[in-house]
Give the backbone structure.
Amino acid sequence: MLLLAAMVVVPLGALTYLGVRVVRQHEVLARHQVRALLVDRLREVDTSVRRFMDERERELLRVAAAVPTKTDDIRAYLTGAAAGAEVLVVDLDGHVLHPPLGAPMSGAERDLLDRTRTIWDGDALQAEVRNGRTGERPGVDHGWYGYFHGGGLNLLLWRADGERIVAVELSRIALLSDLIARLPATAVEGPEAGRTPSRVILADEGGTPVYQWGAYEPAAGETARATVPLSPPLAAWSLRDYSPESALPTGLGDTLTFNLGAALLAVALALLGLAFYLFRMRAREMRVAAQRVSFVNQVSHELKTPLTNIRLYAELLAEELDVDPDFPEGPQGLDDPRGSDDPDAVASAAAARHLKVITGESQRLSRLIANVLTFARGQEGRLTVTPRPRVLDDVVRAVRAAFAPSLDQAGVQVHLELAAAREVQVDADAVEQILANLLSNVEKYARAGGEVRIATQQAGDTSTVRVADHGPGIPAAAREDVFLPFRRLSDKLSDGVAGTGIGLDIARQLARLHGGDLRLTDAERGACFVLTLHTPPHPGEPTP
Amino acid sequence: MHTLPRPLALLVVAVVALGACALPSRASAQHVTVQAGLDHGTLPADTKQTAYLRVALQGQQGGEAAARPPMNVAIVIDKSGSMSGKKIEYAKAAARAALDRLGPQDIVSLVAYDSTVEVLVPATRASDRKTILRGIARLRPGGMTALFAGTSKGAAEVRKFKDARTIDRVILLSDGQANIGPQSPGALAELGASLRREGIGVTTIGMGLDYNEDLMVALARKSGGNHFFVEDPSQLASLFREGFGGLASIVAQEAVVKVTFAEGVRPVRALGVDADIIGQTLTATLAQVYGGEREQVMVEIEVSPRAGGTTHPIARVEVSYHDVATHAVDRVETSVAASFSSDAAAVERSLDRDVMIAVVERLAEDKSRLAVELRDQGKIEEARALLRKNRTFLDFEGDRLGSKRLQKLGAQNEQDAESLQDPSRWNRARKAIRERNNAPDYDGVNF
């Protein structure tokens, strides 16, 4: 289950991480694009301002070109055709020609002289004209001239001809008012009104907002998302765009996040489906194996009775023939009947040998059936042990005797080191079944080792049986796996070896029911199973 | 607001009665009567003296409503946070009242401003009432006060339909201090002057007690419009109704008064109007002449000593104005002369009472203006002394000239003197003074 969870969670996590990174990058990109868009929008505004300034330039140039020479004519011109214009005229040496210094002047004319003192008192306009003549800006005979007065930038448009320089003032306030008239207002209806609100601020040279539009109200201290200076001659002024954080790239990001979420969900579903499929596969395998056991279980019940009869009659037949079916290879050389001269004896010896095979095979089948039935009881939770007073060594000897024919045939020598001669409470059937399974494994898998060593010990309430073979052994990593049902090790080992794969499972179950355990321990070579059993002494016999 | 009744009949009678000896000269054109004269037609002989010349432009009363030129008006309403509540509702009512006074040929736009400007109704024929009323209904109070921008946008709307025949006005309603964009009285005065050059007047209405009267007065004055102080916003609608009536009565625009003074006469200053004095020539431009109302250009002059029994020319007066009914530029010329006499009684007899009243009023306004300056500098005692002196002066002249108007003005100066100490009373009084000192002597309400 953990593996399955990891199968879903890990790839999903990795995908999420990558997805989030993609969204982040996309957001950064989108932010850049939006900023570029905002800058473009501000540039458009600047373009319309520039167009307006160009118009004003042409207009004022026309005014400047038409300014007459005589004071009275100039005054008439400025109250008539060019009403409202304020004009300063200087000659190329810097003398003021108009307003007439030293002659009677109107208040407006005096004010003009006052605020442009730095211009006509110095050399500013002449310098501009010289720049035009000497090549710094060749061919230029007119231009804007900015000067500071009354706390802000003011502009003059100057135009030079051969004799004089005419400068027409562009009042800062009038300019601003005209600009405001041109610039957008906050939209109240139409397509603009429905858009994401933003605020554009026109800031003067001191950074003070002089005009703004847009429904968005930026917080105090909020930084502009885009700033674009106006084109000259208003380059000291700037346009700034403010928009709410949420209105910008997240619009794109949201879609992306949604897409990512959808993709992740799809992948998660696919992975879950896959995991579920694998889980089902495995469950079916388990079910098939269990069915196999269940089938065998049912069949075993049916087989048990005829098998018992077969064994019974085989033993009866052995008595009639006067052979001991448990000791098939006596010193008489029964397995070589041709060594005898007596035809009867020869026939009898052959019959005895055949009978031994029948007996051995029926015993094997009995064990198999016993295993299946035990396993089935274990599955159903009905497995129990019933200890009775017995000597453990006797049980071991009996098992050894039962396996002698098949082990001999497999060429496996059995060495017994028995030291459990006390009578204790032990379930002999369970111990027999455990040992039978261990020896059956030796016969199946470890016959190449050529020997098996069975040692018993007793200490206090615990009895120990050690079964060590000299076979190929079991890798340390697989030591626990062998106890799982339907588990056999490598194909190499199981090749050609029949079995249900439940022997060690029921052996361990029985050992644990008996208050002990069955473990596989380290051994120099081969496999070494250690069976421990809780064996309290027989109530009648005191513990030594 | 000036509500002093000053029957026209009285003026005419006075002028006619004094005409013979005061040597006034009159010239009449179709819709504007121009009259020029001195405070005394006979001046004392053999002394250098100060005298006052008045050029009065009297608009013809009433007239054919059908012939009235189209009005082209932007109503600009402050919708800053301070306008919330009843004030904005009164402003809406005022806008609707204005709409009632407009005819189908008139153009109106509605601009509202707080931190930014919204053009709620772009310049539209007044006959499209539905659109306009919907725009008025959209008026909702918001943030700061971008007064400069609001006025500029209003002017932009006016420009759309402006032509030689239209009467172009921005009606600005504000209850607060401008705090976005240019916000000094000087800057707004410059804006007014700039709009004036285009022929767009700005009528400013200060509402409540929190607006900047200097700024509102400067903007109105320099643009050729008028300023009104409305403490109680519930009076807005009736003010608009009357004001639009005044606007509709305009008979002439851009009246240029050019006075060329004779030798021995030096123009010192113009009283109550902006005028350019260059050498012997004075030029003043009056933005408009309302029907039934009088515009005046008052000039203080210095006259060189002359021998008794002689008559000398004082000035030649040329007036040109744009007649809004005929779309023609009318020109009127007249001249003013004075006789000189050593007989004090003859001098006294030659008094033009009406001119003298106007002169006294202008002089009193000057003192009142100075008193406001003193109070602004914290010199309360000096301001009070000046206002009391002004009161005495007005009482004296009122009695001498038999002018109730001057007497009432005297009483007002007394009230102003009493208001100096308490800041909130002074705030109200200052707004009233600024309104009074900057309004021509109209009988009605003229936007």
Q: What stands out?
A: The longest helix of chain B spans residues 353-376.
